[in-house]
Write a structure and sequence with these properties.
about 450 residues; alpha/beta; N-utilizing Substance Protein B Homolog, Chain A; Alpha-Beta Plaits; 8-stranded mixed beta sheet; 4-stranded antiparallel beta sheet; about 45% helix; globular
Length: about 450
């Protein structure tokens, strides 16, 4: 497609499909070359982070209501607006010309003219763009920060407006990424030398060893370090769950809901590849991903089983990790699509499933064994409220303090749980507890 950016065109198709199905077509993304794939992903996630605000602008500058636009045309205009407003490196003429050209070629001359008219109007008003002014305060906030209204209402009530704004701003920022050094194949010191030699900007975490924060993964991909199993992408807060489980060499460990397997690999490292880890997941499509990651990283003690953990009986283990399915409200910067897929009804369904899985996991733990429950959610119902209900039913489990494992700033006042927040801690939002079986 001469003169049309394949990254822009692909991102529009992915966004159109998302509007129609509420699913991101990652297959389209993965067909692209590395640089185009990164750019398309930036557009998709960036536009989803700003969707409500972009649609508000379209409604102000368009003669056609946003709701009446075909998804393909709507996403061409969204992309043009995103380019104009949020992509500093894109010249205005390129933002306009690309969007208009795609509309002309892929829809019609009339659609190209319409796209041009809307974007030109916005361009002329760039210094004083309108702001949402609905009567409902929460509607104004939801539109300004592009979060669903039900989520805004919860967070404003829980945190207050100022902190809710900070959280949503963090969710709308381009995320940094953490690399976890694979201790089965290299060391943090050696990996640091690799980063320095490749002239990669990074920040090494002092919370846990072997975690490096990067703003871009391009060089790491180009060097082939993922393929060699030297490292993998894992937010540092995601590393807290394996850390507090503290699996020891020679133990038998279960990782329930294990895909994509990075926590499994971390546990194999902590166990020095000595013992046995059973990685369990219900999703048959994600099972090969666990196997691929474990093999690449040299996690030799991992066995994999596709199973519904609530239905299959397992022998008792020394330690069990349950990283439970959740609403994912702690990872909305990296997974901007989740905010538009989640509902209060889905939150309740997640809570019910978590309770079933927690019940199943508890019955896999041997006497004096350990159970870690974790989520990437910020919602109390999925986190501490879930644990309180569990402890009311299971008097043979008790919470263990975490201050020997994790930094004080992520711990509750009683040190019995951790909770991170994107706007406070500069990482994803994760929750977790360590439970010990007494008898």
């Amino acid at each position: 497609m001469e003169n049309i950016s394949i990254a822009r065109y692909t991102s529009i198709r992915i966004l159109e499909n998302f509007d129609n199905t509420q699913r991101l077509d990652k297959e389209l993304l993965n067909r692209l070359e590395n640089q185009d794939r990164q750019q398309a992903n930036e557009y998709v996630q960036g536009i989803l982070r700003r969707k409500s605000y972009l649609d508000f602008l379209i409604s102000r500058f368009s003669s056609v209501e946003v709701e009446r636009m075909e998804p393909f045309l709507k996403n061409i205009i969204r992309l043009g607006l995103y380019d104009l407003i949020f992509m500093d490196g894109t010249p205005d003429h390129a933002s306009l010309n690309e969007a208009v050209e795609i509309a002309k070629r892929k829809i019609s001359q009339k659609s190209g003219d319409f796209t041009n008219a809307v974007l030109r109007k916005v361009q002329r008003e760039m210094s004083q763009l309108p702001t949402p002014d609905m009567e409902d305060r929460n509607e104004v906030i939801a539109t300004t920060f592009s979060h669903p209204k039900w989520m805004v209402e919860r967070w404003v009530q829980r945190f207050g407006e100022r902190e809710a704004f900070q959280l949503m701003q963090a969710n709308n920022a381009r995320p940094d990424y953490f690399l976890k050094v694979n201790g089965l194949k290299t060391s943090p010191d050696t990996f640091r030398l690799r980063l320095d030699k490749a002239d990669v900007d990074y920040e090494e975490s002092d919370w846990l060893p072997g975690y490096f924060k990067l703003s871009s993964l391009a060089t790491v991909r180009a060097k082939g370090w993922f393929e060699k199993g030297l490292c993998y992408v894992q937010d540092i807060a995601a590393g807290f769950a394996p850390t507090i489980l503290d699996p020891m060499p020679g133990e038998t460990v279960y990782d329930i809901c294990a895909a994509p397997g990075t926590k499994t690999i971390f546990m194999a490292e902590l166990m020095e590849n000595n013992g046995a880890i059973l990685a369990v997941d219900i999703n048959s499509e994600r099972i090969p991903l666990i196997a691929e990651n474990a093999d690449r990283c040299g996690a030799e003690i991992v066995k994999i089983q596709r199973a519904d953990a609530t239905e299959v009986r397992f022998k008792l283990a020394d330690a069990v990790l349950l990283d439970a399915p959740c609403t994912g409200t702690g990872v909305l910067s990296k997974r901007a699509d989740l905010r538009w897929k989640r509902t209060p009804e889905e939150l309740q369904k997640a809570v019910e499933l978590q309770a079933e899985l927690l019940d199943a996991a508890a019955n896999m733990v041997g006497k004096q064994g350990r159970l870690v429950y974790s989520t990437c959610s910020l919602e109390p119902e999925e986190n501490m409220e879930q644990i309180r209900k569990f402890l009311e039913e299971y008097d043979n489990f008790e919470l263990e303090p975490l201050d020997d494992y994790l930094p004080e700033e992520v711990l509750s006042k009683d040190n019995l749980s951790y909770q991170t927040f994107p706007h406070k801690h500069g990482c994803d939002g994760h929750f977790g507890v360590l439970l010990k079986r007494k008898f």
